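Internal tracking record. Fields below are filled automatically when a chain is submitted to the structure queue. Please do not edit lines marked as system-generated. If the sequence contains nonstandard residues, flag them in the REMARKS field before resubmitting.
Queue: standard
Priority: normal
Entity type: single polypeptide chain
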Amino acid sequence: MTGESSSSSEATAEAPPRARAVVEPAVPVVSVPPRRPGRPLIEVRDLGVWYRLHRKKRSTFKRNLLKLRFRAEREVLWALRHITFSCYEGEALGVVGPNGAGKSTLCLALARILIPDEGAAIIRGQVTTLLTLGAGFNLALSGRANIQLYAAFLGIPRGELERRMDEIIEFSELGGFIDEPVRSYSSGMRARLGFSVASALDPEILILDEVLGAGDRAFRAKSRQRMQAMMGQSKLIVIVSHATTLLREICTHGLWLDHGLMRRCGEIDEVLDAYEQATDGIDVPPDEDGH
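SYSTEM-GENERATED OUTPUT FOLLOWS
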């Protein structure tokens, strides 16, 4: 996994005309040399994603006239900017940063859900995502039916899913609840079900956003073992979490985001040491119920 400060990109999309961008000052980026030969599975080049801000103000006759004249003058917020790094097979990237740093936006871009407004995110491989607790579940359906829905969304053949169904259910530890509506599940149960499906279907690239602490300690230990086994099979994992202790156990490399910018990128211990020093060593351990 490598990080650079280069501004080159394969595709560049310009901000809207006359828009005012809210951008934090540039911060230093630590570059490390490539660890493996060949092409990376994830290659991010000067990536930027912006959102348009809509601030509601009291309507006046003068303001309405100005809207007609200066319709293009709208404020935008750069959720990510100048993000450059690469990830290779067999690696696990831990992404850290305060709330609002752009971590979830990065996951959406890597999952091809968001199209970058600047730069490029080149993904070489099939991506499986678990972005939020129970994301994509139909709450009215049972856990078993949601496994079938999620597998169909990923393009998994029915025969392969039937062969793996018992394995998925057993790993989730839901027992008889697997045939109950998902609306009756706790957030930890939903996260366990989602992780069990996402990790059992042989994803080439697995992206987990704030779901690393799903379940009790025994289930978290099982999750770590499964992710380490996936890494041994030359899979790539991207993990977003505030739990730096768990990231040190699982990840090989780290990426620290702050206000949409890349503060540090490199070996996991190097990145987390700097991050914890800047945040007074605060670690957020997962709760016993998976929250």
